[in-house]
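Q: What would this complex look like in 3D?
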Amino acid sequence: MNNIPLTIKETQEGLKAKKFSAVELVDSYLAQINKYNKEFNIFLTVTEEQAYKKAKEIDRSNFQSPLSGVVVSYKDIFLTKDVRTTAGSKILESYIPPYSATSVNRIEAAGAIPIGKLNCDAFAHGSSGENSDFGVTKNPWNKEYVTGGSSSGPAGAVSANMSLVSLGSDTGGSTRQPANFCNLVGLKPTYGAISRYGVIAMSSSLDTVGTFTHTVGDMEIMYDVLRGEDGFDGNVKNFVKPEIKKRFKLGIAKEYFIDGLDAEVEKMIFEVKKTYEKMGIEVVEISLPHTKYMVPVYYIIQPAEVSSNLGRFDGIRYGNNRNSFGEEAKRRIMLGSYILSAGYYDEYYEKAMKVRTKIINDFDEAFKTVDAIISPVSPTPPFKLGENTKDPLKMYLEDVYTTTANLVGIPSLALPSTFSTSGLPIGFQIMGPRFSEHALFELGRKYHQEIDYKPKIAL
Amino acid sequence: MIYQIIIGLEIHIEPNTKSKMFCGCQEDHFGAKPNTQTCPICLGLPGALPIANSEAIKKTMQLGLALGSNISKISKFYRKHYFYPDLAKSYQISQKDNPFCIGGSLMGKKINHIHLEEDAGKLIHSKDESLIDFNRSGCALIEMVTEPVFHDISEVMSFVKELQLVVRYLDISNADMEKGTMRLEANISLSTSEKLPNYKVELKNINSFKFLEKAIKTEIERQTNALNSGQKLAQETRGYDEKTKTTFSQRTKADSDDYRYFPEPDIAPIEIPGSMILDLRSRIPELPEQKRKRFAEKYKLSSDYINILVSDLERANYFEKACSLSKEYKTIANLIINKNFDKEYPEPAGLVKKIYDLGSKMYESAKVTKNAVEKVLIDNPDIVTSYKNGKGQVIGFLIGQVQKKLKGKGNPKLVNDKIVELIRKNF
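A: Here is my prediction, written as structure tokens for the whole assembly.
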């Protein structure tokens, strides 16, 4: 087949009309993987056999499940029963899990075809994909550039048309930033909307399951398959899809216009504002006074929880010993252990938790006047490989706009908007109150209709 | 020199819940084949998450309520980090601030708090290898910490025995030392003043009441001798060696732990509604001390008998059931305690029937009865005459007189028959 469809709807229409079979779809995606994976280092494991087996099942079905025939790939921190799961780390180089993540089970039960496991920064530590122990992932739009991270593979796979959708994770922007760098729709859901069961934990109070798609419509389908209680993640709540408002009011925080904000990104934000206003949606300036504490608070809480979660990789049970931890993991384990140690806990962790509460209050206040908040995702367009690796602090500042949604626990939808002058994708995010995903989808759809957005693939 | 003994206790109780603390695996692991009761959660596999067991939480709170603890309105779990091969996640989910129960007392001894946590796996060492059995990993564990309020061994022993009983009455656990469902640790120090000294020795590895008593005694002797010879005592953990009957150092303060506690993010703080507390409180059964008092008042038994009966809830219940069928309280207690008749007759009714059957043996013999009847008839010629004259009802008076002589031990039928027989024959 020549043109692989870029939406779930077209895929399923093609299957139903017998334009192509699920097996042929798998052929096409595998061809793309075989052609480009060496160069871009997107997949760590390709599950060809599994994909064909499932595709044959789907071809025998009547394509009625929500994800029938949708080829999916998973960031390698999603446990997949009997399929190696590395978390991008040499520590787990040979780890074969005995169970699958809830998300994996749900997606596959809904008819999706799993095609493989994706590269990422080791244990999801990173904002560029350069911290993977299996080598850096290159941006399919320009291989001199990073894909963003830590979900480097998931962004690479969908933008390079190696799978239709992919699952990543988002602890501080790890889905939204790479989605933006690769011209994709990325969702960081409400904390507690999608089960984290079976996703290797990074920072338990911030981790969420992220999704990559080409369109907002596909995102909504994925989200409705993934969300809801599973009996394994006690923080997950069921909810009924709310009625979507007819009139929206959006906010832009004045605190977001900081020194490090790239001029092109800033300009794009104003374009977005204009686009919404053109549709008759009011956009007002708001204040989020604690914005400047976002990164410091995030880099206290996150390493503390990381140091706790990585303790189990003690060299006894998971094959490789602790020498296999990369630099970034070691840095966070040391930072986190220090932060939690007696005498420092009050000074750092507890204080950070208090500021976190203040940040949450900022947003509670803001959502009294606006329905959603528009923000940059990354302060810059995609950067070159190696550009930020020497300075971990500079790399941490990549997260200045994204950590917000994780600290507050609210959903954020990253949307592709345009391309920079150097031809690289840029976009923005739109954040709403807890469990407002469906409203965000509506706002995203409106925006894309207005700018006549068409999904594009890089390769 | 005379020292004040200061002892505080840490007591772990494995509750008889159906499932483990944070997963669906079976809690009871006694005698199970190693690693047959595990899942991703209690193995601490990557990606696994805990779900708190509400049955274990309720049992913990019920113990607190029975002992007069305050129940935290919002309780939290914490992660407690330390490295040990049997600790699957490298942290134990336990509690720190806001444990389920704060304060309370038993036998006048103050309790600091009662919290809930998960157990670790078990290391099994053989000659050239060490194996880990994770069946116990993630099992629920209730921990009670007392204030340092014990000043001699007998106080400690009666406290732990009473606690075991309370826990059994509440159906929280069978609290068997031998099966490890009850585990004791004692913090011991000696002081020359009212103040707490600047050290304490934590005694571990104790698996029976008997050894606890011996271990504390040995440790007090060791500390006394050390202080008398001018040594300074160090903060340390010591084990008890049953063979040599001595305690030995396991860890000193130099390598004391920093557990890096922080609130467990995977489990939201747990709000305890007042209605739940009321409900749990309403379901607290009569506790051992209340039962002892009631038995003393109602059945007028000796305190020895009461203690024996109350120390075994099943026996106490059996006793009461039997007492509802017969008023022979002392006899019933005696047959249960000294003759183990409760084992012989699973139904209390059987025991009571037996008492009646045994009756003849317990009445005075026929000879003694006959002598008593003769005496009464001789002493009451007028009544005998009335009887002979047809006033049959006066026999009641005669029977009463005979029973008086026999101190109530006359077999009523025999007494009646003898009176009739002797009047007819001799009078």
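A: To summarize the key features: The interface with chain A takes residues 40-41, 44-52, 79, 81, 83, 85, 88-91, 258, 260-262, 265-268 of chain B (CB under 8 Å). Residues 87 and 120 of chain B are 5 Å apart (CA to CA).
Q: Very helpful, thank you.
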